[in-house]
Write a structure and sequence with these properties.
Belongs to the RecN family. The protein has about 575 residues and is of the alpha/beta class. It contains 20 helices and 15 strands. A hairpin with a 2-residue loop joins β1 and β2. About 30% of the residues are buried.
Length: about 575
C-alpha cells in the first residue's frame, strides 16, 4: 500500500507530504482545490504519461516520491529481479522528476529505470478508477476483456495459448497476402537477382585484381620503352672501358692505395667501395630484368578485355571492385531470403487452414468457459446492484459468434454488456440505457467483485460517486468500504455519506500565498471531520443543525462499519 507521498512543484502544489494508512481514506474539498492533482501526481509515480505542463509556474522541474509497502506475494518482485533492482523489507521507493526541457528521470529504490519498467511495476501498485473506467465500460470492444478478468486461472492459460497461436496464424496470413499481392514483382525481383549474381559470379572477381592488371598492362603497353631503358642502363653501368662500374672500380683502386695515409682517404675509399658494389648489384638486377623481359601480345589483349569486363561490373555494381564483390554477396543473401519454391503458397494455405481449424476448436472451448463466467458474473453483478439500490435492474451478457474464417485475438466471441433498469423493459446495450449515476454503480459493482482477485496494493476512486445522492450514496460508501477490507482505498468524493464511511479523511484546500495559489492537505481529527462533513451537507454555511446532522452521519457510519466488518 501507499505509505507516503511527497509532491514538489506539481501544478498548484508547492510542497506537500502526505502519510497514508490502510483501509479507506477520503479526500474531500471544494472543486478545483487540487484533489485530482494529487491523484495525477500518484499516477506519474506508477508510469502515466508525463508533461511539462504539470510543472508549477515559475519552477524549472517537478518531482514526486512515493513509499510503498508491498505484499511479499506480489508479482512485482519478479519484475524487480528481472531488471536487477534490489529490494528489502517489502518496501519500495519510487521517484520521478520532470524538467522544462522534457527530461524525465525515473528511479525505483534509487536505480534508474525507463518509463516502461515503471509501468510494469506500477500496475501491481496502484489502480486508478474514474472517468476513464466509465469510458472503458461504454466501449463495447472492451467488454470481452472485462469479462475475461473474472475468469479463473485455467481460462487465462488457455486464452494465452490461443492468442499465441492466433499471432502465428496472423503472421502466416500476412505472409501469404504479401506473396499473392507481390507475386509478379517478387518474380521480377528474383529474376533480377539471379541475373546480377550470374553476372558477378561468372566473372570470378578477385579483390585487387584490377590494380594488378593495370600494372601489368602498363608494362606490356610500354615494352619497347622499358626494354630500351634497361639496355641503355646496363650498357652505361657495365660495358668494358666505358661502363660506370669499371670507372668506379678504377677510382676505388686508386683510393685503396692511399687510404692508409689519412682517415679522410679511408672514408672516401669506404664510400666509393660501397657505391661500387651497389652499382654491381644494380647492373646484375638490370641484366636479370632484361633476361626475363618478354612481350606477349596475346597477354596484353587478354588483360585489356578483362579490364573492360571489370570496368563494366564496377559501373553497374561498384564503383570499386570490393563493392562489386559485396553487391554479389548481398544479392545471394537476399535471394536466399525471398526465393521460394513453387509449393510455398499452397503449403501456406494448407497451414493456415489447419491453424484456423485449431483456432476454431480452441475458440469454442474458450466460449464455453466464457458462458460459465458470464453466468456467474451476471448473478454477482445483479446482487451488487440490489445493494446499490437498483433492485429492478438486471445485468446481462450477450454473446454473438464471429465467422469461423474470421476469428479474433480473443477467440470466436463478441461480447456485449446489457442492462434493463425497470420491470417490464427489455435488455438493451449498457451504453444506451445507463445514466451517469447508474454507470457509477455498475462500475462499483464490478470493483466490489474483483477486489479480492486484484494483484494490486492500492485502488483509487476518483469521484466515482458522481451523479448519485441519498440512500444510493450510502450504499456506494458501504461498497467502497467493503473493497477497503481487501485493498487500500483512496477515495475522492463530494458525498458526505461516502466521506463518513472512511476511516481517515484528508481535507484539500486552495490558498493564496504571496500572490500564488497553493494546495494544502490536512488530516482531520474527529471534531474537524464533523465541520468538514457539515459543510458538505450544507453547501455554504455551517450551522448547529448541520453539525448535528454530520455527527449523526459519522455515528451511523461507525455502525455500518461494524456491521460490514
Amino acid at each position: 500500500m501507499l505509505k507516503k507521498l511527497i509532491i514538489n512543484n506539481f501544478a498548484i502544489i508547492n510542497k506537500l507530504q502526505v502519510d497514508f494508512h490502510g483501509g479507506m481514506t477520503a479526500l474531500t474539498g471544494e472543486t478545483g482545490a487540487g484533489k485530482s492533482i494529487i491523484i495525477d501526481a500518484l499516477g506519474l509515480l506508477v508510469g502515466s504519461r508525463s508533461s511539462i505542463d504539470f510543472i508549477r509556474t515559475g519552477q524549472e522541474q517537478l518531482n514526486v516520491q512515493g513509499l510503498f509497502e508491498v505484499k511479499s506475494s506480489s508479482p512485482l518482485f519478479a519484475i524487480l529481479d528481472e531488471y536487477g533492482i534490489a529490494h528489502e523489507d517489502n518496501q519500495l521507493i519510487i521517484k520521478r522528476e520532470i524538467n522544462r526541457k522534457g527530461r524525465n528521470v525515473c528511479r525505483i529504490n534509487n536505480e534508474l529505470v525507463k518509463t516502461n519498467v515503471l509501468r510494469q511495476v506500477g500496475k501491481f501498485l496502484v489502480e486508478i478508477h474514474g472517468q476513464n473506467q466509465q469510458q472503458e465500460l461504454l466501449d463495447e470492444d472492451n467488454h470481452i476483456n472485462i469479462l475475461d478478468r473474472f475468469a479463473d486461472d485455467d481460462f487465462q492459460i488457455e486464452l494465452a495459448k490461443y492468442q499465441q497461436l492466433f499471432t502465428e496464424y496472423q503472421d502466416k496470413r500476412s505472409r501469404l497476402r504479401t506473396i499473392q499481392k507481390n507475386s509478379q514483382n517478387l518474380a521480377q525481383r528474383i529474376d533480377m537477382l539471379k541475373f546480377q549474381i550470374e553476372d558477378i559470379d561468372s566473372a570470378k572477381v578477385v579483390a585487387g585484381e584490377d590494380d594488378k592488371l593495370e600494372d601489368e598492362k602498363n608494362q606490356l603497353s610500354n615494352f619497347e620503352k622499358i626494354s630500351s631503358a634497361l639496355q641503355e642502363s646496363y650498357r652505361g653501368l657495365s660495358e668494358n672501358n666505358t661502363g660506370v662500374v669499371d670507372s668506379l672500380g678504377n677510382v676505388r683502386d686508386q683510393l685503396e692505395d692511399i687510404m692508409d695515409y689519412d682517415d679522410s682517404y679511408k672514408e672516401l675509399y669506404d664510400s666509393v667501395n660501397g657505391a661500387y658494389y651497389q652499382l654491381q648489384d644494380n647492373a646484375s638486377t638490370i641484366a636479370d630484368q632484361l633476361e626475363s623481359l618478354d612481350f606477349d601480345e596475346n597477354r596484353l589483349d587478354n588483360i585489356q578485355k578483362r579490364l573492360i569486363t571489370l570496368d563494366s561490373l564496377k559501373k553497374k555494381y561498384g564503383p570499386t571492385l570490393d563493392e562489386v564483390i559485396d553487391f554479389g554477396k548481398n544479392a545471394h543473401h537476399e535471394l536466399s531470403e525471398i526465393d521460394i519454391d513453387d509449393n510455398t503458397e499452397s503449403k501456406l494455405e494448407q497451414e493456415i487452414n489447419e491453424m484456423q481449424e485449431t483456432l476454431t476448436d480452441l475458440g469454442k472451448t474458450l466460449s464455453k468457459q466464457r458462458h460459465k463466467t458470464a453466468t456467474t458474473l451476471e448473478k454477482s453483478i445483479n446482487h451488487q446492484l440490489k445493494d446499490l439500490y437498483m433492485p429492478n435492474a438486471k445485468f446481462g451478457v450477450t454473446f454473438a459468434a464471429l465467422e469461423e474464417e474470421s476469428p479474433s485475438i480473443n477467440g470466436i466471441d463478441q461480447i456485449r454488456f446489457d442492462l434493463k433498469t425497470n420491470v417490464g423493459e427489455d435488455f438493451k446495450p449498457l451504453v444506451k440505457v445507463a445514466s451517469g449515476g447508474e454507470l457509477s454503480r455498475v462500475i462499483l459493482a464490478f470493483e466490489a467483485i474483483i477486489a479480492e482477485k486484484m494483484n494490486v496494493e492500492t485502488i483509487v476512486f476518483d469521484e466515482i460517486d458522481t451523479g448519485v445522492s441519498g440512500r444510493v450514496a450510502q450504499a456506494i460508501g458501504d461498497k467502497i468500504y467493503k473493497v477497503s477490507q481487501f485493498l487500500q482505498v483512496l477515495c475522492i468524493t463530494h458525498l458526505p455519506q461516502v466521506a463518513a464511511m472512511s476511516q481517515r479523511q484528508f481535507e484539500i484546500k486552495k490558498e493564496t500565498v504571496k500572490d500564488k495559489t497553493e494546495t494544502r492537505v490536512s488530516l482531520l481529527n474527529d471534531l474537524q471531520r464533523v465541520d468538514a462533513i457539515s459543510l458538505m451537507l450544507a453547501g455554504t454555511k455551517v450551522t448547529d443543525l448541520t453539525r448535528q446532522h454530520a455527527q449523526e452521519l459519522l455515528e451511523l457510519a461507525q455502525g455500518e462499519q461494524k456491521r460490514l466488518d
